[in-house]
From TrEMBL:
Statement: the UniProt record of this protein carries the keyword Signal: yes
Signal peptide extent: 1-28
SUPFAM superfamilies: Periplasmic binding protein-like II (SSF53850)
The UniProt record lists the keyword Signal: yes
Family according to the record: Belongs to the UPF0065 (bug) family.
Annotated source species: Cupriavidus pampae
Gene3D superfamilies cross-referenced by the UniProt entry: Bordetella uptake gene, domain 1, Periplasmic binding protein-like II
Protein name: Tripartite tricarboxylate transporter substrate binding protein BugD
Source organism superkingdom: Bacteria
Residues annotated as transmembrane: none
Annotated keywords: Signal
């Protein structure tokens, strides 16, 4: 194996002599310093937790320190722009969720284009749950649908802000029900969930990673899980999917992917993708993800090409839903 210092000396000598550095040398060098995973959301949230789990697993597969940094603001677009403008050397990577696919429809101006990023592979998917305040009368989705059909505009549907997973899930729910509800945006999941548990708002479609403890504690009512398959989490085992409970085809999952700046050397991209594949087989990571109801991706979307194709499908899918809802880009 080529010693990293030796490879650096070789690279320096090659540059001094006007000789191009070969991909083999670049690959041998990577990673010879800590790698940064940028999360475009606040610490402590679902994306941050997932990124830290992935960082720990990547540390083992890359045999290098992997640091998580939170760069928040503007629905995740500020952190994304930071990575898009970073040096294309594989040392600054992005962990982002479904919001990357909805941003083009929600914001007039972005500090980046999708072509500014290299797609490295999808990481995981997590369902959401449709939950209601404790005092909401219906106990089943069938009865809730009747209430929405009769008085939908009088029902408040809370979310964690424009472009959040709860907002997107609510838009999809409204689209499939063909009924208008009153959307109530909050500055984060915490205050929205607090008001729901306090009977200040009626409904919320929130990630299972956040809602499961409230369902388990009977602090909210659970009407359905947003994925096609029921959750394996014990607290959600008896909660039907929205698909089986009267909304055929309803399938909403919050996914996360890994990205690098455009122009990162192919050899480095391949090494990162290989490390990601190995990381997602880590038993400790899988155990932590499954405990939260999260499914680790194992299909073709784990490849760069499959990831990009899936992303493009999601951009088109959500673009139509957002347009049909009459939401104007900010």
């Amino acid at each position: 194996m080529l010693n990293p210092r030796a490879s650096l000396r070789a690279a320096g000598l090659a540059v001094a002599c006007g000789i191009a550095v070969t991909p083999a040398i670049a690959l041998a060098e990577y990673p010879d310093k800590p790698v940064t995973l940028v999360v475009p959301f606040a610490a402590g949230g679902p994306s941050d937790k997932i990124a830290r789990d992935v960082a720990e697993a990547l540390r083992k597969t890359l045999n290098q320190t992997v640091v998580v940094e939170n760069t928040t603001g503007a629905g995740g677009t500020i952190g994304t722009a930071r990575v898009a403008r970073a040096n294309a050397d594989g040392y600054t990577l992005l962990v982002h969720h479904i919001g990357l696919a909805t941003a083009p429809s929600l914001y007039r101006k972005l500090g980046y284009k999708s072509s500014d990023l290299e797609f490295l592979g999808l990481i995981n998917e997590a369902p959401s749950t449709l939950i209601g305040k404790p005092q909401l009368a219906p106990n089943t989705l069938a009865d809730l649908r009747k209430l929405i059909a009769a008085d939908g505009d009088k029902l408040n549907l809370a979310n964690a802000g424009v472009g959040s997973a709860s907002h997107l899930c609510g838009l999809m729910l409204q689209s499939m029900l063909k009924s208008k509800m009153t959307f109530v945006p909050y500055k984060g999941t915490g205050p929205a969930m607090s008001d729901l548990m306090g009977n200040q708002v009626d409904l919320m479609c929130e990630q299972a990673t956040n809602s499961t403890p409230q369902i388990e504690g009977k602090k909210v009512k659970a009407y359905g899980v947003s994925s096609l398959q029921r959750s394996a989490v014990p607290a959600l085992a008896n909660v039907p999917t929205l698909n089986e409970a009267g909304l055929p085809g309803f399938n909403f999952t919050v996914w996360h992917g890994l990205y690098a700046p455009h122009g990162t050397p192919p050899a480095v991209l391949t090494k990162i993708n290989t490390a990601l594949r190995a990381a997602l087989k880590d038993p400790e990571l899988i155990k932590r993800e499954e405990a939260l109801g999260i499914t680790v991706v194992t299909d073709d979307r784990l490849s760069p090409a499959g990831h990009k194709k899936f992303y493009e499908t999601e951009v088109a899918h959500w673009g139509k839903i957002i347009q049909d809802a009459g939401i104007q880009p900010e």
